[in-house]
Amino acid sequence: MIEANNMVKASSINEANGSDRVLWIDVAKCIGIFAIYLGHFGPAIGKLYVFVFQFHLPLFFFLSGAVQIFHQRSFAENLRVVTKRLLLPFFFFGLLFLCVNTVLTQSLSSLGQDLLGLAQGGIRNHFPAGSLWFLTCLWLMSLVFPLIRKWKPVYLLLLILVIRFVTVKVWLPSPLDAPSWWYNLDSAFCYYPYYLLGYLLIRPICAFLKDRRKKMIWIRHAVGIASLVFAGYVFVCQADFILPLYNNIPGYDLLGIPLHYLLMILSVIYVSWLLRNVKILARVGQSTLDLCGNENLIKLVLPPLAHMVGLTLPPVEPWAICLYTAVLILIVLFTLIPLERKLEQRIIPFCFTAR
Q1: What is the pLDDT at residue 21?
Q2: What values do phi and psi take at 21, rounded to 5?
Q3: 229, 247 Cβ separation under 8 angstroms
């Protein structure tokens, strides 16, 4: 469906193991989708609830921008590709969820409003299949990118500053707190800095991770461990110790939050690089968009099925919810996604052709 394997081609920055993928990116996507599934269980997961919201969305937009380094498409070609990969699957997943939800609830009372919400692009926090907003948001981001990809890095950095200024100083209340625009245009605008940062930083990051000089190996691990210490502090204390230190510096509010997110992203990149050869993690990472589309569906269907055999889901303990989250992802990966691909090939082959 959504280019299940959304190939991350690696030419000039390919990894030394000869793979045609940047393996740590796949693993980072796996960590990100796990965090998204987990975070949507809410306060039931304890400290993890605040923690995962410190990085999972910026991480995904960062990685989405990073993989753009491997694509060189015209605007028209890009429109065709991203529409097939993102927009059409959004409607597929949205209709599938609404059909299943109508059957399970045996009610049509909200179907009209939900269909309207689907037509509006699944506005974040306003559509019952909450995770689908990411697909339309990313569709808009990817649609715009060919228009600016040839800009010099300094101009892209300037654009990042302009977006941050508008969202912090001008656009109040922030669209991140009160999203309302169709197809999540307001959310796309707010998160676009992370998309652009991913595009700008992917080459130096890959070069840093590939450098085999002894000095650089030590530096790489030192930087990685420092980022993990930062992430550990954020988890234990549920706070950021960087922003308060510089809170009185004029203009720091424009950069403080992105810096915090980048440090969290760096910790994920380091862990992903260490685990880059774990095949099951990479396989999950290669299917993150399909997993995103199926999140609400599997969480809707599995509990009543489990109840039929005397099980109560979801569990209530944070550790059990973490385990349950992993099970959900594996069920989707090995059952729902293969079934959906067979369904798509039968009913809408012109939309989901091999890419």
Answers
A1: 73
A2: -130, 155
A3: no
Backbone φ/ψ region at 285: left (φ over 0), alpha (ψ -120 to 50), beta: alpha
What does the alpha-carbon distance between residue 328 and residue 306 come to, in Å, rounded to a whole number? 12
Could you identify the residue written with the tokens 């091999």? 354
Q: Is the peptide bond before 314 cis (omega within 30 degrees of 0)?
A: yes
Cβ contacts of residue 40 below 8 Å, gap of 6+?
130, 131, 295, 299
Per the structure block, which two tokens stand in for 309?
Answer: 């055999």
**8 A C-beta contact, residue 75 and residue 95:** no
**pLDDT in the model for residue 72:** 82
**What pairs with residue 21 in β-bridges?**
9
Res. 256 pLDDT band, cuts 50 70 90: low
Instruction: Output Rg (C-alpha) for the chain, integer angstroms.
Output: 20
> In one letter, which amino acid is 327?
V
Nearest-10 crossing angle of helices 252-274, 153-165: 120
- Residue in 191, 224, 255 with CA at minimum distance from that of residue 56: 191
Contact 126, 179 (CB under 8 A): yes
What token pair was written down for 45? 């997961």
